[in-house]
Structures are given as C-alpha cells and as structure tokens.
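Checklist before submission:
- one chain only
- standard amino acids only
- sequence pasted in full

Submission:
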Amino acid sequence: MELMDSQPAVKKKKLNIKKEIFKYLRYWYWILLSMLLFYLGAKIYLRYTTPQYLSRTTLQFPHSKTKGGVALTDLTTLGNGLGGDSELQGEATAILSKPTLAKVVGQLNLNVSFFGVGAIKENELYTSSPLLGNIINISDPNFSSASYVVAPSGKNTYKLSEGPLIKGKNTFNFGEIVKLPLGTVVLSLKPGKKSFEPVKVIFRSTPSIVSSLEKSVTVTLPPNKGLMMELSLIGPVPGKSESILNSITEQYKEDGVKDRNAEAQNTQDFINGRLEIISEDLSGIEGEKESFKRKNEITDLDTQANIAVNNTNSGTKQIVAYSTQLELIKSIYDASSVERLLPSNMGLSGVTEGYLAKYNDMLLTKSKTLKQATSQNPSIIILNRDINEMRNLIRQNLMESKATLQLQIAQLQAQLNSDRTKIYNYPTQEKIFRGIERQQNLKEQLYLYLLQKREENAITLAVTAPIAKVLNPAYTIGVVKPEREQIVLGALLAGLLLPIVVIFAKNAADNKVHTKDQVISHIPNASVIAEIPIKDNDLGLLQNNDFTVFAESFRILSSNLKFILRTKENGSKGGVILVTSSIKGEGKSTISVNTALTLAGSSKVLLIGADIRNPQLHRFIKDSKKGLTDYLISEDEYPDQYIVPSGLHQNLDVLFSGAIAPNPNDLLDMKKFGWMMETLRNEYQYIILDSAPVMLVSDTLHLMEKSDIVLYIIKSNYTDIPMLDFADEFQQSHSVNNISFVLNNVKPEDSRYGSKYGYGYYTHKGKK
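Returned file contents:
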C-alpha cells in the first residue's frame, strides 16, 4: 500500500528524459507511418522528376601585350589582352549580353523545342526528335510561348492540337508554312523519318529565351587562377547545355574579333580621310610657298639676304672709291685750266695717265727749250700747239672719266638702295616664310605619322587572334538535381520530425492538466495523495471484491486519508472529509461515493450531499425526497429520519442535499448545521461532504471550518492549467492547511508509474 508523499516547500523536479521520450514513442506507429509515406513520396518524386545535369566550359584571357614588333609599341589597337581583374569583370558581363545570347538562340534554333508526350512527365527530344521546326516570323508583339501536340494525320500530313489555332484548321502538310496566332511557322519531317509518335512542340520568342539563359547561365571567375572564366549551365539535356555553352563562347570570340576589326576599320577610314585632307592642305601650303618665292624673287632667303648685305657693303666701298676718283678728276680738271704740271700716278685710267705723263714731259721740254730760245721759237710754238692739244685731250678725257664715274656711282647707288630695301624687307619676309614653312613641316610630320599608322592598322586588320582561348570545351559533370541521397534522407527526417512537431505543438497548445508533476510544478506545496485512473464502467462505482486498477487507486486514497487523519492532534481515528474542486464536472461526487465505499469496508461512513445548488448523488444512489435542506429548515432536533441507507454497503449511509434552496450560504452557516456535524461525529467514524465548486460559489467556505481534511479534486485532461494557479491562490488566501489534492480520470500513460505497472497486485480487470 502506497502512503502519502510528503512534499517539501519547494521541490525542484528533475527532468525525466525517459518519460519525455515516451511521450513521443507511444505514437511510434504514427512516426513510422509518416516516415514510410515521406520515403515513398521521395521515391515517387525521384522517379518522375527530370534529372538536371551540370555542364561547364572554361575560357582563358591573355594578359595585355603588344604585337607586331618594338617599332609598333605605341599602337594601342594591337593589344588584344586584358589589363586586370577589373576588365575581366566587365567581360564576365559582356559574355552574357543580350545580342550574344540572341545570336546563340538563332544559331541553335532554340525557339522551337520538341518533347516526348508522357503520362506524367515530358522529356525533351533535343537531337532525337523526328521533326524539325522553324519560326518564320512573329506577328504577335506580346508573344512569349505557345505549345501544341503534333500527331501524324495521314501521308505527309500532321495534326495540331491543344493549342490556339486560326479558323479551326488543324491539319497541315509537312513543309507547309502554317499561320498561327503567334505568327507563321513551318514543321517538317527529318530526312529518313516516315512515321512518328505524337510529340509536343513549344514555340518561344527570342526575348523570353534570352531572359531564361541570362538567369540559368552562371559566370564565375576562379580566384588565384589568372585571367580565367568559367561558364556553367544546369539543364535536363546535357547535349543541349553543351551546345549552348559552346555557342556562347564562339559567338563571344567572333564578336570580339569583329569588334576589334571594326575598330581597326574605323581607324583606317579615319586615317585615310585625314590623309586626303592633309594632302590637300600640304599641296595648298606648297603652292603658297611657291607663290611667295616667285612674288618676292626668293630662292634662298638667307643666302639672298647675305648677298644683299655683302653687296651693300661692297657697293658702299665702291661708291666711296668712285667718289674719290671723281673728286681727283675734278681736281686735275680744274688744275688743267692753266698750263702747269698735272699730278700723275693717281690711279686714273692708263690712257689718262699716259696723256698726263706725255703732257708733263712736253711742259718740261718747253721749259728746257725756253731756257735756250724765245717764245717765238718755232719749236716753242710747235710745243705750245702740242701742249694745248694734249691739254684739251686730257681735259676731254677727264670729262669722259668724270661722266663714267658719275654713271657708275649712280648705278652703284641704285643697287645699294635695292639691296637696302631687300635687307629692310627681310624680317617680314622671314616671318611669313617661316610661318609657311612651319605649317608645311607640321603637315608633313602629320602626313608621315598617319602613313605609319595606316601601315600599323593594316597589320591589325590582318591579325585574327580571338579575344579568349577555350581551355575546356563544354563538358557535362553529372547529375546535380535532384540530389537523391539528400532528398531520401531529408524525406525520412521530415517524416520523423513532422509527427514529432505535431505532437509537440499539440502538447504545447494543450492547456489541460494531465499529470501529477504538472500539479506540483504549479502548486509547490501541494500534497497529491492519489491518482484516480479512468473509470472502468460508465457509472464509475466500485464493485464488491473489486481488484481493478480503478478500485486499487481508491484503496490507496483511503489509506492516505487514514494516515493523515491519524496524525491529527486530537488523535481521532476518523474525521470529516470535505470533497471539492475548482469547477463542476471534475468528479467530486464520483470521488465522494467511491471513497465512502472504500472506507465503509471497515468503518461506519456517512455521505452528505453538501452541494445544495447542483446535487449529483442521485446519479449513484437512489434519491430520497428529504435531505439536508429539509432538516435545516425543519423543527426536528436530530437528523436521523433524514439519513437513509445507501444500498451500496451496509456501513454506508447517505444524507442527500434535499430540496434546492435559494439561500445555501445561510443554511450552511446555521448553528443547527454545526450542532448536527458534532452529533454525527459521534455516530460515524467518517463523514464525507460532497460540496460545491469553490470557484463558482462560496458555499464550500462554510464547510471547511467543520472539516478535518479537504480533498481538492483535479480532473486530468479536463481541468485547465490556470485552475491550478487558482487552487494555489485559494489555498494561500484562505490559509487552508489541511488541503490535499486528488488527480482524477488519469490515463495510464500519464500516471506516476505509466502504463507498464498496475496500481495493485491485481491488474487484470474483473479479477475476483
């Protein structure tokens, strides 16, 4: 027999891992079924899911370098490499440009796809399709995609279905241009094909395919591997994915060469245009230079300027010399006006000097002759005549020399003036000429530079090296989706967790009391003296010689009650037991009746229906017309005539509640009721009061003072957990020290011992 557990003031319960696990293990069949269903679902999913394959290709970009020799190091258009990671990032974006992808769509004819028609899934027929198709033009600007089922209809004809048609016509000839709502298309049989099974054809617009490729093709730049780029694509058909990747790389390389050649061609056109303009400018400058030289009579400006300066110097000297001679001639001419000796050897002409010498000799001869003869001497007369003739001849010669010198001086002076004018005009002419020469030199240098660049650009046009090198042509690694092992393991894990989560959520959302531990956790000072299992029968009454778990639990309850009552200070072997609860329906009457039956086995017991408002004892015992309320309002001193045998046990009597009164509190507070209780204590060893719920009415408060122990009933799977807080507050606020708790209607798995053990030695139902 189990005695009452003594509870400390605050008891910290250890976590019972085994019990917590058992909460879930008792639903093992649901967990197993859930795992099985999820496993089957995963298998079905893997069976009918189209596998996705990963295809990849690798490109390598050369570093930026100059080609064509050292002489062309300044030609930027020849560099076809990349300068660094920043440029590579730009190429990673450019390789998936819309124009490039649109060319790929056109090259591979991705606008038309064929699929095998299956019951559950459809497989794309990339190269194994019996049909060929093309979209000639699209008339619907909002067209994205359209699908049809193509089935053979007759010889060289086919039938379209499951798609929009025009005017209801659905049979066409192979190779015939078919007009559909989307536009015009053409379908034809592959060479060698005569018949085929129905297939599904999907027409898609180029923008929609380009958008799909932008999302599905992934470009990555492997770190620490130089200027390399990886393109990957996941798709259901490895061959198609590889073709798309190879086509992207080829189009990208072709576009790179075209872009570079286009740049070089534009450069060449620009150079040729500039050469024509500069040639015209150069011809104009050269003509201007020629006109300037011709106009200014210039062959070599510096040389001519030097000649002019030299001529000016020499002319000036010559003029000075001629002027000197002219003055000498004038002097001699003036001196020859009289007969005298004339100076000779003065640098005059040889004829003049000869005339002067001969004239002087004649004068000397005359002078010598006059010393010996007179002036009338014939010799003297002849000499005078000769002297006069010679003097006249000298004077005439001097005049001619004078005229000659004057003419020469005038000529020299004119030449000198001309040379001085040239020297004066030289700075202006030099400035103009230098400007013309400067323009000519600039145009010539630019002309030669452009000629050099034209040759270098011609070399660039001849270079056809691609922008990138394909290290690894497109190849397929294997299946990446679905991941079979992960899906199977995930399904099993989901099948395991789902029921656990459901159970946990159900337990978390459960607001009912189930176990004794819940009572103790909310009411630390609670003394739970019994756990009453679920009733074995509809009435819930104990039977004679009953050894069921239900009966054994009441024997434990009775033993604990006797133990508590024996420990009272008055030493009594019996007492008054008050049975109450928080709300109605928690089994107070059932507990009261069965406890009374258990105690009646060895003691005389009285069961009083103290719930005047809502009596329930008549459900177990045949009701009497009179009861407690009738006695309290009567003039009778003793309640003997109101107490009747229970009919359930010879030691058990019953005092029913009687007529329902409007003032239960006043009745139970009467002195007559207290005197009655004191009187009945002497006649019965145990008195059990079946009272009203304490949360709903206050009737029970009047009975607690007259009770030795209060049994507070809590019904498992019925009482809300907040009711435990109310019970704890009720116990503390009313200073009820003799309260004990009974957990009613407990499931075997929620009991203290679980369903593995029985409450007594006899656990077989109905054993006598």
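Reviewer check: Confidence is low (pLDDT under 50) at residues 1-12, 66-79, 757-768.
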